[in-house]
Structures are given as C-alpha cells and as structure tokens.
Amino acid sequence: MELSLRGVSHKVGAQQHLYPMDLRLAPNAVTVLLGATQAGKTTLMRLMAGLDRPTDGQVLVDGTDVTGWPVRKRDVAMVYQQFINYPSMTVRDNIASPLKLRGKLDRAAIRARVDELAAKLHIEMHLDKLPAQLSGGQQQRVALARALAKQAPLMLLDEPLVNLDYKLREELREELGALFADGESTVVYATTEPAEALQLGGYTAVMDAGELLQYGPTAEVFHRPASLRVARAFSDPPMNLVIAQGMGDRLQLRPGLELALPGQGGVTVGVRASALRVSARPGDIAIRGEVELAEISGSDTFVHARTEIGELVAQLTGVHDFELGAPLTLYLNAAHVHVFDAAGLLTRAPERQGAR
Amino acid sequence: MARIDLDLAHAYRPDPKEDADYALLPLKMSFEDGGAYALLGPSGCGKTTMLNIVSGLLRPSHGTVRFDGRDVTALTPQQRNIAQVFQFPVIYDTMTVAENLAFPLRNRGVAADRIKARVGRIAEMLELNGQLNQRASGLSADAKQKISLGRGLVREDVSAVLFDEPLTVIDPHLKWQLRRKLKQIHNELKLTLIYVTHDQVEALTFADRIVVMTRGRAVQVGTAGELFERPSHRFVGHFIGSPGMNFLPAALEEGGGLSVAGQPVAGAVDAVTGAALSRAEPFALGIRPEYVELEEIGDGSAHARPGTITGTVAQVQDIGTYWLVTAQAGPHTLKARLSAHARPPAPGASIALRVLNPHTCFYGADEQLIAAATVAAAQEGLA
C-alpha cells in the first residue's frame, strides 16, 4: 500500500508538535523514522495509524483520503516498546488472535500460519506457554509474531527493541530486516539509534523537533545528509564538526592545517569518526592531539581526542588500547570529508567507492 | 583495598543437582588488589548474584569469600568495608552536595580537615566543585548520580567499590565523559573496583579485565583485546563484537589437511595445532567478520587459494561506516565486514573467503577454545 501525508501538522493547544510536512512512504518497504526523543516520531505514527487526527493536512492510503477514519476502519498492525500480549492466553492463542478475529481462515490454516510465524521468530518451542513464562526478548517476539499474523498492509513499530539487551536487539534487527524484505507490508519503524536505521536499510525519514528534515534511501541519507541538522541526527558517534575558512582553492582548519578543497568564507567541515585514522596514507593531513578516552565496543574502538582543531572522535576497527593523555596523531584525507556552507547546507560529500 | 578470592557456588534452592539449579556454578576466581573489573553478561547470567556475594548482601550456599586471605563469608557489607553505587542515585536531598560526599567519612569519625581535603579532591575529579554548597534536591538526575559515585569513592580505606549498572540514568551523550572520569579516578586512586553491566561498551571501556558470564558460569576473564582476539569460549566470540564471530564446522582430513564447511582448505595447519585438533573432533572454526577477507572469483572457477573456502554473496548491506557482506557457503552463513572505502562484491557473485589466518580460532564440542591458528601457509594472503 502507499501511504502519503500531505501538509500534515499537529498542534496540541498552543504547542506545535509537528510542523507541516509532506511525505510519501516507499510502498511495501521499511521506512525508519529516526530522531531523538521528542522529535515527533510517536506523534507522527499515531497520525498514520488514525489514533489521532492531524490539525491540518491529509493522510492518504493508495490515493484515498482516510484523514478522519477511525483506527478500527484502517488495517494497521502496531508494536510498541512495552511487550504487550494477552497474559491469560498461550503464546499460540496470542499469535492466532488476529486471525481468529478476522474469521477468514479455518482452524487448520490458522494453526499452520501460527507455526510458520513462530518458526520464523524462533519461538516455536514456547507455543504452549503463557507470556509471563518467557523472557523479555521472547515476549517481544510473540508481540511481533501477532502483528505479522495480521498481515496488515501497514505495520507501525515504535522502538520495539528498546527494552531488550544489545545482543538480542542485534539478532532481532537482522530477523526483522529479513521479514520486512518480503515486501508484503509498508512498514514504519521508529528509533533513536542511527545504527538501527543502517542495519534495517530501506528508507529513512530524519526528524528533529517536530520537523521532517530529509527522506530517502537510508544509505543515501547517511552519506549525503542535506544539512548539519541531519548530519547531527544521523550519526553515532556524532559527526566531528570543524569550523573552517574557505581560501579559494583550500579550506583552512587552522593556520598551517589545510584541506585541498575549494571554498569561500566560513564553512563547516564534517568528518565522520570512521574517516579519521591513526596511520598515514599518501595525501593525508596530520592532526595532533592527545587521547581523552578510548571507548571500546568490541568491533570498534572510539578514540576521543583533544586536538589542535578541537575535540575529535575517531572510530577504529577492532580493539585498541590507549593510555589516557597519550599523544596521538590523527590522519585525514580531504576526499573523505563533508562540507556545509554558512547556512548549514551540504555542499560536498565524499564519493562512494562501492556505491552502485 | 583488598585482593578478593572466590571459591564458591550459589543455588537459591537446597540440594542443587544439575547445572540449571545453580545461579552461580562452582567457580574459583580472584580480583587483584587495585584492579578494575567488569562483570558482563545478558540478564540472568549470574553477574548480580556474584556482585551481591562479593559485597556480603548474599551469602553463597557453598564455599568461601576471602579478602586478603581472610575468610569473610559470614560478614556483612559493613564488616567487609565495602562501598556500593547503585543504578539509581541514593543521596540525602536535604543535605548539600558537600555534606552528601562527606557522609560516609563523618560516619566513621574521620577528622574534619581530612574530610574537607578528601571531599574537595573527589568533587574536583567529578567536576562537582562548583556545586558543593548547593542542596542536592534541586540537581539533575545526572548530577545526583555523580554524587552517588562520589560517595562510593570518597573513602580511601574501603576493601572494594562495587558498581551495579551505575550509568543507567545518565544521558547517553554524557556517558562517555563519566566513563572517562571513572577511568581517571581508578588510575589515580587505584581502588579495587567491580562494575556490573550488560553493556559491552561500558565493560570493555571501563575495566582492565572483564569477566564474561552466561548461565551462571564465568566463561572468560580477560582484557578487551583478549576477548576480541582469542575468545576462550564460543559464547564470548558471539557476545563480544557486532556482529559476533562466525562459526563453521571443520574437520581434519586424511593426511592432516583441514576441511571447513565441507570444503578442503589449502594450507595445512601446523603440527601442534593439528595434534590438538585431532584429539578434539568434532570441532568448529571461528573467525570474526572483521578478519574474513574476500576476493571475487571472476569466472566462478575455484582454483585453491591458501586458507580459503568458496561461497556466494547473499546480501550486501551499507552500514554507513562499513560494508557488511553475508555469504553462503553451502548451508552455512558467514559474515564479513569490509572497510567503507572498499568496493564490495555484488549479491550473487562467487567469492573466495579467507577463513584461515592468524586470527582464526578453533572450538571443541564443549564450546571451549582448543587452539588458535598459527598457519604458515595462510599468512601469505590473497593475491
């Protein structure tokens, strides 16, 4: 199905929760709503579901204006942060409930569908248990299976993995990505985590303070953030931002430290943490500083450094040890930076080698 | 400060018989005096049980806890001289920041000038010195938790300071700064610190040594580098790193060659590794996505490259700061992480996957590390 918003805004009293926005969601694909808490993600989802009515504008489903329609007339499945299941029903009955309610399938067909979904979400061994007998991760899998059982053309998920620990999140993200790739539903998935958007792929709508800032294929939005605001919202660790002076054919980060890129006047150079290295390659500039802290995630080490051009964070693959306060030189190639103009709009993004 | 030795087990039910009856399976472990340790694992792994046994809040059902050789199993946290910091701030709202920090010292009758000096030092370390005379009640959750941390650290004579997920309430953007503070404070004060968390960044960043736990068992104690490079148990390979380690079934062929995922691999393992493996069959090969190297095989013909198996590309994901390639080798799935600046292969492409290199580990049926590869033939790399 194709869901579009036309000039939709939302006000509560005098407070503007959503500023007017136009958005046509890619049909039968995942759209990630990415933004910090209070960005307006849940408000927007409630308008999409029909739980709230926009103050202005229209919600269209396959071209039909459904703005005033109540939620029960819409065909929507929702999953929330909290694990919501029927506590007195077995897992099997929980998953089967939307199918029974609809009454289109006979008992054998319902049984087969529940078995199939349970297998996909790895809860087939728990079908006869009650939700309370399961761990948090398993309970959320039950809620997800029930939402999928509905086979609703529109599925809304509001930070469904936020209450699970990170390894479970990682596994479920991967499974959800595969389930959504079936292309049976238009899926909207709200999250505060840039990594979640990148892992799910699909499309991303970046939101900030009630505004829709940018919409497009997830990787494209990440690599070509239209503005500083998008770059800030869509990076973890934060993109390093350095004020620079355009000198015509080069950008001066500070006297004696320049990138061979064209520019005039005051600009902001954006450097993703992954663009900084600790070993030099031909054409690099060298930035001197000292280590404040090395944060280690396992697959990556995030080195916080105080440098001659301000605080920087570098992302290195694998585990690296650094003493607090140790001297450190970071290397950067001009080809790997973003440049934003004085108004904060993107004027240059690194070229993507592997992009196809 | 104390060295802490555990030789114990804990079951919440009497007369435990099987592994599942134990919250903590029988273990022997030592925390060195002045070390910074993290207990890391998913919920229900036993890390909080272990912390409570160290503090004295919980008495183990079997065995002993020793501080500097002295049996303290029956002693209370006060008698053991333990300081604790919990998930949520525990402070006196009606007192000032300085009075809150001084409280543990005043309780023990420390002289006023000593208290003043110590409170000043801790406040400076935590950047609370501007707020010393403010009432605690008006402060943000972050600042309150900093006071809790400060109260945990203010006494010099404690046996150990224990932290139970202390950064839960801290704003994500401020977390790294507090992690840095804690690390600095540990460097300066050299207190014995034990830190419980389910967050791998927190554990790996804070601690000198990390205790990885699962299902009541401590499966490895090591530095961040050791856990990443040489997981001593498959759970560690899986749990540390995103995505976790790849595991493929492997076997020794007649004549000492190695087969992985059903394919013979050129480049024999050395004699020592081979002997260890031959005693351990069946076994699995483990390699991290960061260390799998890929090469496209243009025409699909697989002339044997050292240390490689062949497969096809199932999926290529742009994770922004790197490419994640999912490959299929027969029924087995393998992930490889490539630099963002590399050119990834296309889905459907035939590829050679180098799985045998100095980072390769081997695991037995009991999931324990058998051997790590030291493979001369595999060191040459892909052409």
Summarize the structure.
With 356 residues, chain A is an alpha+beta fold. Helices cover 23% and strands 35% of the residues of chain A. In chain B, helix 3 (97-107) crosses helix 4 (112-125).
Features:
heterodimer, A: 356 residues, 6-stranded mixed β-sheet, 6-stranded antiparallel β-sheet, 20 strands, 23% helix, 35% strand, globular, B: 383 residues, alpha+beta, 21 strands, 30% strand, elongated
**How many DSSP E strands of chain A?**
20
Radius of gyration over C-alpha positions of chain B, nearest whole angstrom: 25 Å
Distance between the termini of chain A: 27 Å
Average pLDDT of chain A works out at 92
Residue windows where pLDDT falls under 50 for at least 5 positions of chain B: 375-383
For the termini of chain B, the CA-CA separation is 55 Å
> Strand order, biggest sheet of chain B?
6-7-8-3-9-10
Helix content of chain B: 25-40%
Which oligomeric state applies?
heterodimer
List the helices and strands and how they pair.
The complex is a heterodimer of chains A (356) and B (383).
Chain A: E1 3-12, E2 15-24, E3 30-34, H1 41-49, E4 56-61, E5 64-65, E6 76-79, H2 91-102, H3 107-120, H4 136-149, E7 154-158, H5 166-180, E8 186-191, H6 194-200, E9 203-208, E10 211-217, H7 218-223, H8 228-233, E11 240-248, E12 251-254, E13 257-259, E14 263-271, E15 285-296, E16 300-307, E17 310-317, E18 327-332, E19 338-340, E20 346-348
Parallel strand pairs in A: 3-8, 3-9, 6-7, 7-8
Antiparallel strand pairs in A: 1-2, 1-4, 4-5, 9-10, 11-12, 11-14, 12-13, 14-19, 15-16, 15-18, 16-17, 19-20
Chain B: E1 4-10, E2 24-31, E3 36-40, H1 47-55, E4 62-67, E5 70-71, H2 77-80, E6 82-85, H3 97-107, H4 112-125, H5 141-153, E7 160-164, H6 172-189, E8 193-197, H7 200-206, E9 209-214, E10 217-222, H8 224-229, H9 234-239, E11 246-252, E12 258-260, E13 263-265, H10 271-278, E14 283-287, E15 293-296, E16 308-318, E17 322-329, E18 332-339, E19 350-354, E20 361-364, E21 369-372
Parallel strand pairs in B: 3-8, 3-9, 6-7, 7-8
Antiparallel strand pairs in B: 1-2, 1-4, 4-5, 9-10, 11-12, 11-14, 12-13, 14-20, 15-19, 16-17, 16-19, 17-18, 20-21
Helix pairs in contact in B: 3-4, 3-5
